């Protein structure tokens, strides 16, 4: 049998679908004299509805900080977050005899600050917000999965007494000149000074937090040999809480704890900086405080469906698996394509929300485990796609349809056996080389905790899925 003929036939069928998604039933026979490949297409109705997302898994490559009034619900959304800090393997400071920063013979830090670097803020860039920083009494549990509903205060991890530092900020930092902000290497940040006296858990007092860190290093260098020891013995983490203001939310992509000191080298006094990073390698948890009851109107709007983050609304699809497979039980599904078209936002608000840029399709019954187990898309039972041409297109979910049908035939009694959910997500990627080509490999899929929203065609307006089958006669 000539494989080239088969491929050509399938391409012709795909071309028909590309020209007209409403082609209906179409048959195509391909023969080389011994085998016949029959290709056909059909389309089916897909029903959709909005469902409440509830608290989301808070694991993310970024943190979020701020408060913003949702223009669609007129309800406030507050984002606070927690982060730990990492130390480099084999971290070291100059030997104790070389430290020049001393008071009365005791080593001290010249200063200490914590910087929260942010990007892509939502809301008014000139809206003032006040953040308060609190030390956590113990680390977040590395083996626990936290949701956006997690409250470290009620969990006993934070005592809301006097904050270690406070800062009033705007997303557009007007303390920095316009010329400086225009530079390519400029990175806006919220700077929290930690230069006031600090008392540790044992009641010892230091002139600033940096001095505490330096003295801990020289007394217990083993605590700095890796991140686990550092978190459990020196810096358990911090909680950043919005305590005043509204109008904007910052996306925190990096946190840095920096200690400045002086040391002697080659007959000169030099300035040193010890840096500890809050990165993906350590625990970061965003807390979302919203009012789920305010979503009721949108959930009941059957003129379409919604995608709304954070911890807002998902779209559920009921796939017509039985209809798709009827009469095609032994056929191959070469393609099963569905597009979720956006309805353009007509809100008069000056801060209309952007649509999610990436979405995940996963079986409803697998939603929780997908994020709990840090899964990534396999393009068999889970798929990601990006916003394009004002919609989200899943080009081929045929393997998912077949998998659902097989599980049903084996006795699955789940009421959600043929349902999938569409969830806004963000992803992390890495570049890998395969067969001489560079490809982007998805390394992480996270709930999108940005404030985003869009309405999709659906609800009382049915969607359609187009399927291409093939069989040998």
Architecture overview:
Strand 5 (102-103) and strand 6 (106-107) form a beta hairpin. Helix content is 14%, strand content 42%. Strands 1, 2, 17, 18, 19, 20, 21, 22, 23, 24, 25 and 26 form a 12-stranded antiparallel β-sheet that branches. With 473 residues, it is mainly beta. It folds into 2 domains: 40-54 and 291-472, no CATH class; 63-282, no CATH class. It contains 8 helices and 26 strands.
Summarize the structure.
Pfam families: DUF4270. With 473 residues, this protein is mainly β. Helix content is 14%, strand content 42%.
Question: Could you list some keywords that capture this structure?
Answer:
473 residues, mainly beta, 2 domains, twelve-stranded antiparallel sheet, ten-stranded antiparallel sheet, 14% helix, elongated, disordered N terminus
């Amino acid at each position: 049998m000539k494989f080239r003929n088969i491929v050509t036939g399938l391409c012709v069928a795909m071309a028909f679908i590309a020209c007209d998604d409403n082609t209906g039933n179409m048959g195509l026979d391909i023969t080389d004299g011994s085998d016949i490949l029959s290709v056909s297409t059909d389309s089916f109705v897909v029903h959709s509805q909005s469902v409440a997302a509830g608290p989301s898994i808070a694991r993310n490559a970024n943190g979020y900080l701020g408060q913003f009034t949702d223009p669609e619900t007129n309800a406030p959304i507050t984002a606070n977050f927690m982060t730990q800090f990492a130390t480099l393997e084999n971290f070291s400071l100059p030997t104790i005899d070389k430290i020049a920063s001393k008071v009365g013979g005791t080593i001290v830090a010249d200063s200490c600050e914590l910087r929260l670097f942010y990007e892509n803020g939502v809301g008014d860039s000139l809206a003032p917000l006040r953040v308060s920083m609190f030390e956590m009494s113990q680390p977040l549990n590395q083996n626990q999965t936290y949701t956006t509903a997690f409250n470290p205060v009620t969990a006993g991890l934070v005592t809301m007494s006097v904050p270690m530092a406070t800062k009033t900020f705007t997303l557009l930092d007007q303390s920095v000149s316009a010329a400086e902000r225009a530079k390519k290497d400029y990175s806006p940040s919220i700077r929290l000074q930690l230069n006031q006296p600090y008392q540790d858990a044992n009641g010892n007092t230091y002139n600033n937090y940096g001095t505490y860190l330096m003295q801990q290093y020289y007394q217990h260098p083993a605590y700095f040999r890796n991140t686990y020891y550092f978190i459990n013995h020196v810096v358990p983490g911090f909680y950043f809480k919005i305590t005043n203001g509204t109008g904007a939310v910052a996306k925190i992509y990096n946190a840095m704890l920096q200690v400045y000191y002086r040391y002697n080298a080659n007959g000169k006094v030099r300035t040193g900086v010890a840096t500890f990073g809050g990165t993906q390698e350590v625990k970061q948890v965003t807390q979302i405080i919203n009012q789920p009851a305010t979503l009721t109107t949108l959930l009941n709007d059957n003129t379409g469906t919604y995608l709304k983050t954070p911890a807002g609304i998902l779209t559920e699809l009921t796939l017509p698996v039985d209809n798709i497979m009827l009469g095609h039980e032994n056929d191959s599904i070469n393609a099963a394509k569905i597009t979720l078209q956006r309805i353009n936002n007509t809100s008069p608000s000056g801060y209309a929300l952007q649509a999610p840029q990436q979405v995940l399709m996963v079986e409803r019954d697998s939603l929780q485990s997908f994020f709990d187990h840090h899964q990534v898309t396999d393009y068999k039972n889970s798929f990601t796609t990006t916003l394009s041409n004002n919609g989200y297109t899943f080009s081929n979910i045929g393997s998912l349809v077949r998998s659902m049908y097989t599980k049903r035939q084996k006795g699955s009694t789940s009421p959600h056996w043929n349902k999938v959910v569409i969830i806004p997500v963000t992803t992390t990627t890495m570049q890998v080389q395969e067969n001489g080509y560079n490809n982007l490999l998805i390394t992480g899929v996270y709930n999108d905790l940005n404030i985003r929203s869009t309405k999709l065609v659906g609800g009382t307006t049915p969607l359609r899925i187009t399927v291409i089958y093939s069989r040998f006669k």
